[in-house]
Design a protein that fits this description.
By secondary structure, the chain is mainly alpha-helical. The protein is built from four helices and no strands. The chain starts with a helix and ends with a helix.
Length: 106
């Protein structure tokens, strides 16, 4: 269950990172409230996951999911670069996440 918590925490990290853009410097109340909610849920789920997943692994996976998710969001919805080298770098992050999962004890 810890890995499920960690994966969902990573998705909420994507949500709050993207949400920061839409708060426009913390001046828009609804995006700010949603961003703060996503932050809270993300940290709470990360803390639950860390009960049984080592801190280094959990944090690396959490940030990796967030980094890849936000980069993909930017490419799909904000017109950010999709050049092959950038995609390769994202693939390497994904490979690292999978590697950490495969080498972690249950």
């Amino acid at each position: 269950m810890a890995w499920t918590y960690l994966f969902i925490a990573g998705l909420f990290e994507c949500g709050w990172a993207v949400g920061l853009k839409y708060t426009e410097g913390f001046t828009r109340p609804l995006p700010l409230a949603l961003t703060l909610l996503a932050m809270g849920v993300s940290i709470w789920l990360l803390a639950l996951a860390m009960k049984s997943i080592p801190i280094g692994t959990a944090y690396a996976v959490w940030t990796g999911i967030g980094a890849v998710g936000v980069a993909l969001f930017g490419m799909m919805f904000l017109g950010e670069s999709r050049e092959i080298l950038r995609l390769l770098c994202l693939f390497l992050i994904i490979a690292g996440i999978v590697g950490l999962r495969l080498t972690s004890r249950p």
